[in-house]
Task: inverse folding
C-alpha cells in the first residue's frame, strides 16, 4: 500500500483549533493564575495531565507492540505463563487502581484547599439572560457586567439567578460555581495581584450565552477606596438633583424618560427604578456594553441603543429608532453618568 506523504499535515487543522486557546493576554485562562485558588486548580490540572499523558503513551506503546507481534500459529500453546499473569495483575489492576485512587485523593485535597470562610467584602451578583447585576450592599452601589475588588483581600461573592441556571467563572481566579434561581450559592475570590480578567457564564443559558461575559478588575486597596468614593460622589450629585453640566445632557435625560428606557433601567436619584435591564447609574465608567459585546465608547453606545438586536440578537432590549439629534443627546446623558 502506498503511504500518504506527510500524514501529519492532516493534524494541522486540529492543532490550529487548539492554538486559538493561546491568546497572548491570557485574560481568560485557567492556566495563567492570579490567585491561590486558581493556582491549586492549575496544579491539579497539570498533575493529571502529566500522569494521564504518560499512561496514554504507555498503553498506546503496548498496543503497538501487540499489533506488530507475529501472529500465533495454531499449534502454539494457549496456557499463560507466570510472567504473563503478573503483567495482567500489575498492569491491568494494580496500576489503574493506584492512578485512580491518587486522582480521587488529590481532587478531594484540592477541593478542601479551595474551601474558604465566607469573610470579607460582600458583593452580590445576580445572573440574568444575558448579563450580570453586580451590587455592593455595604456601599449602596449597583453596577453591571464588571466586578471591582481590592487586591489581596478575600471577597465573598453571593450568587443567584433571576431566571435560568447560569454559572459564574473567572478562570484566572477560581473555579466555576452554578447560579441558581432559588438557592443562593457563593464563592470567595482573592486576587494576588492587580489586573483585569475576563469572566464568562459557564452554563448554557440560552441564545446569547456566549455574550454573557464580564470583567474583573483588581485594584490595590487605596485605588479601590478611591473608586468607591468617586462612585459615591456621583450618586450624591444625582440624588441632590444637581443641574446637568450642559444642555445636551439635560435634553438627553428627557429623551431617556420619553422613550421609556426608565421602564427597564434604574438610574440612582431618578424615578427610574425597575430592574429589567442593567442599572445605568454609573454607565459612563462601564468598560463594555452588552455584557462584553462591545467596548463602551460614544459610537458604540449610539449603535447599541439604535440596534441592540443587531449586535446581540435575541437579547431582551428592544431596538429604539431615534432622530440623530435625540440619539446624540441620549448618549451625552448616559456617558455623563459616572
Ligand atoms: Cu448565563
Result:
Amino acid at each position: 500500500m502506498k503511504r500518504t506523504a506527510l500524514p501529519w499535515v492532516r493534524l494541522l487543522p486540529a492543532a490550529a483549533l487548539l492554538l486559538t486557546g493561546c491568546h497572548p493576554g491570557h485574560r481568560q485562562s485557567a492556566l495563567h493564575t492570579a490567585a491561590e485558588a486558581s493556582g491549586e486548580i492549575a496544579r491539579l490540572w497539570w498533575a493529571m495531565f502529566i500522569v494521564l499523558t504518560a499512561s496514554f503513551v504507555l498503553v498506546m506503546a503496548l498496543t503497538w507492540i501487540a499489533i506488530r507481534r507475529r501472529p500465533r500459529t495454531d499449534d502454539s500453546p494457549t496456557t499463560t505463563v507466570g510472567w504473563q499473569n503478573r503483567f495482567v495483575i500489575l498492569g491491568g489492576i494494580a496500576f489503574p487502581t493506584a492512578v485512580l485512587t491518587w486522582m480521587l485523593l488529590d481532587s478531594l485535597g484540592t477541593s478542601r484547599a479551595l474551601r474558604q470562610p465566607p469573610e470579607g467584602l460582600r458583593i452580590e451578583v445576580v445572573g440574568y439572560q444575558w448579563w450580570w447585576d453586580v451590587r455592593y450592599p455595604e456601599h449602596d452601589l449597583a453596577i453591571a457586567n464588571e466586578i471591582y475588588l481590592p487586591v489581596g483581600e478575600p471577597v465573598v461573592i453571593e450568587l443567584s439567578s433571576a431566571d435560568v441556571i447560569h454559572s459564574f467563572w473567572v478562570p484566572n481566579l477560581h473555579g466555576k460555581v452554578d447560579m441558581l434561581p432559588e438557592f443562593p450559592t457563593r464563592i470567595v475570590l482573592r486576587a494576588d495581584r492587580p489586573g483585569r480578567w475576563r469572566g464568562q457564564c459557564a452554563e448554557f443559558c440560552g441564545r446569547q450565552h456566549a455574550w454573557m461575559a464580564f470583567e474583573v478588575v483588581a485594584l490595590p486597596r487605596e485605588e479601590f477606596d478611591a473608586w468607591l468614593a468617586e462612585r459615591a460622589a456621583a450618586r450624591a450629585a444625582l440624588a441632590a438633583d444637581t443641574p446637568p453640566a450642559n444642555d445636551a445632557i439635560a435634553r438627553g435625560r428627557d429623551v431617556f424618560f420619553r422613550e421609556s428606557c426608565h421602564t427597564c433601567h434604574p438610574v440612582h436619584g431618578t424615578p427610574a427604578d425597575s430592574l429589567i435591564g442593567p442599572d445605568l447609574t454609573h454607565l459612563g465608567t462601564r468598560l463594555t456594553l452588552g455584557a462584553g459585546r462591545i467596548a463602551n465608547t460614544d459610537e458604540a453606545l449610539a449603535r447599541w441603543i439604535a440596534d441592540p438586536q443587531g449586535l446581540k440578537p435575541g437579547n431582551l432590549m428592544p431596538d429604539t429608532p431615534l432622530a440623530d439629534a435625540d440619539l446624540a443627546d441620549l448618549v451625552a446623558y448616559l456617558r455623563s453618568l459616572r
About this structure: Residues 36-68 form the longest helix (33 residues). The chain has a mean pLDDT of 93. The radius of gyration is 28 Å.
